[in-house]
Amino acid sequence: MRLYQGIRSLILTMFRKILFLWVRTDVSGNSAEALGLDPDKPVCYVLQYSSLSARLVLEQEVIRAGLPGATEALPVKNGPAHSFFFLYRRTGGLFKGRRQTPVPTHEFKALVHYGIEHPEQDVQIVPVSLFWGRSPDKEKSLVKLLLSDTWSVAGRLQKFLIILVHGRNTYVQFNRPLSLRQVIDEYRHNEGRANRKLARILRTHFRRVRQAVLGPDLSHRRTLVEGLVRTQAVKEAIRETAARDDIPPEKVRAKAYKYADEIAANMSIVTIRFLEVVLSWLWNRIYKGIAVNNIEVAKEVAQDNAVVYVPCHRSHIDYPLLSYVLYKNGLMPPHIAAGINLNMPVVGPILRRGGAFFMRRSFRDNPLYATVFNEYMHVMFSRGYSVEYFVEGGRSRTGRMLQPRPGMLSMTVRSFLRDHRKPIVFVPVYIGYEKVMEGRSYLGELRGKKKQKESIFGLAKAMRKLTHSFGRVSVNFGDAIPLAQVLDEVHDSWRQEAYDADYRPAWLPQVVNELAFRVASHINASVAVNPIGLTATVLLGTERLAMDEGQLIRLLDQFASLLRAYPYAETVTLPEGSGRDWVSYCEAMGLVARQPQKLGDIIALEGSNAILMTYYRNNIQHLFALPSLVASLFENKESLRREKIVFLSSVAYPYLQSELFLRYDKDQVEDVIHRWIDVLVAQGLLKALDDGRIGRPEEGTEATLRLRILSRFIIQTLERYHIALGILRKYGSGKISAAELEEQSALLAERMSILFGLNAPEFFDKSLFRNFIANLQENGVIDTDENGLITYGEGLEEVADDARLVLSVEKRQAIQQVTMLGA
């Protein structure tokens, strides 16, 4: 018997080595840490269908990863003679696939029987999914169709051909183990039902993984485009357009077809594989690595839901980067909403075949186009395709999260209301760059330079940057947001109402606004803190944008410690290393300058880098918002009662929350502020006095410097608020409109930025003033009369008086000189 097993093992080993002369694999989850294996319990791997090639691949990957062996006998009596089993056995002939109902294998049944007979024993069952290539579409070519690993189960001959064609693009996914004892525990007296329960759980698991990796079956693009024009909503839009514009219906129908053809993606597996190779080369050339965190969220929700990936938008690199990360981690690349400006010659067709669908910037005045686009989105969601779009609309030039635009979110909600059989889940994604490729062009645009249109020539010009290093990139996945859950919270009777393609319920804007805020705040709650952002935050908090190297290193370590003392969210990631490492890294990236000095080198921001670094500071500004707000209250006060600190911070919080998308609800914020006061006291930035007051440290100490720098992380935002309030009080109630207040505030802010050398381009951003004015109205501080002029009462005076606490004397005087207000 041993001789037979030895010969058999030798033959299988030889087959495995021959197979891997050709096969190349991409593997996910193949580590004991990722799987969470208990070293004291035996491990058994399970593959879905009986296959010699699948067995050989499993054995090879288990050996490579150093996992418990798959060829060793499982230590269970009468169980499998090796530590793996197939869930279903083959029932066809030599060249036939399975056309009958799959039949569980003998090893599967023996393992269940052993678990029932020995309740004290447990086995960790690790499901392993194997894909020979990952085809997201049905090609016209019969050969390509036959040789794609899709939802059908291949016979032996087809599997042999698939391995020949796709073997070098094989994907293997290990998943967290099931406990045999827990699964069958309730059926210990009914072995048949225990078999069926475990089989059902494993079958469901493999189906969900296949859904996530391959995506739903896709029809041919031409069929999809023709189907859009035949939908009832588009037919009605064609009739209305023809009647309104007095155009023959045939011409309008042709226009609708043209719109659909302009919009629709044409995802191709060949293009995706080509892009994978190109992008792998590109990332290795321009980046020092891609850190992916919390992707388990995406893997989990992709198995049963239509997923909407909603990343922040900082660079054109965002488009291919997220698709690349998803594909490399075994998930179906999404269909991506791209601006029509990217549909350029050469580039446009590649993007379209990589999953991009194109949309015009505005189509409010074109109801026919709007209907076609809405129907296309509805097809995407109702069929369960994953979709990606940027809620900000455009790239952020300041490094902050922009105010979300409601358009795509509204389309998504309306589509789900029409057909909610397939759940929709939003997955926020933070994409953080240590050095954004478009950084220098952003500086020009913030100074008033006209935005350059995308073109082939611009792309060729950008290719010259490929010789530069842009540091590391982080892709952090945030907590998922089920759309049904948001609807339940805002309008719990939504399931009882009937909806058609044109119906817009009165409560729709409330749902969209709530959804927009959650998406933005979840993105910010997944931020990746990197050495450049942290160094920029500290240096920009100094008066001269320079600091002794030793002092800078200490401050970096201390502010990183502050973030660890009270983490903003579990999904936030912090940089490895220490302040000394981070200063050296920033210097190597050419973002800070070193000025040698006998008493100690000075690290400084010089030239355009001083403005560029505000971009990276703004990436993480929200993490320090509340402790910085508390610190700013001591700018002109030596001590304050704790209750006064909490009150003043709570008054300012709604405005900071709206601008920075802070995650805490308004009923939570007082507890959070109390916690931050305790942390600041524990870290020595504040001190608890005998009379129950909170005081700042002694003047001249390093603790005072730390507190002052911390306050400057947010103080420019508070100064901007005071500018708007000062101008409003200058004109008086009922004397100025919101648009005029916005314009006047931006002009004064720009003047102050020149007078005081403020290097933050967003300081005089009109959109931030517009948002603040809207929040004043929402919070009942101001109102508008029938002429559109702003009115206010005593509440505004109280807010203005409280805001003055954080302003320096010089800045108060500068504002008063322009607004002509008394002290």
UniProtKB/TrEMBL annotation:
It comes from Marinobacter lutaoensis. Residues 307-434 form the Phospholipid/glycerol acyltransferase domain. It is found in: Cell membrane. The lineage of its organism: Bacteria, Pseudomonadati, Pseudomonadota, Gammaproteobacteria, Pseudomonadales. The gene is plsB. GO terms for biological process: CDP-diacylglycerol biosynthetic process; fatty acid metabolic process. The keyword Transcription regulation does not apply. InterPro entries: GPAT/DHAPAT, GPAT/DHAPAT_C, GPAT/DHAPAT_LPLAT, GPAT_PlsB, Plipid/glycerol_acylTrfase. Keywords: Acyltransferase, Cell membrane, Lipid biosynthesis, Lipid metabolism, Membrane, Phospholipid biosynthesis, Phospholipid metabolism, Transferase. Signal peptide: none annotated. A motif (HXXXXD motif) lies at residues 312-317. It is a peripheral membrane protein. The HXXXXD motif is essential for acyltransferase activity and may constitute the binding site for the phosphate moiety of the glycerol-3-phosphate. This is Glycerol-3-phosphate acyltransferase. One of its GO terms (molecular function) is glycerol-3-phosphate O-acyltransferase activity. SUPFAM superfamilies: Glycerol-3-phosphate (1)-acyltransferase (SSF69593). The keyword Lipid biosynthesis applies.
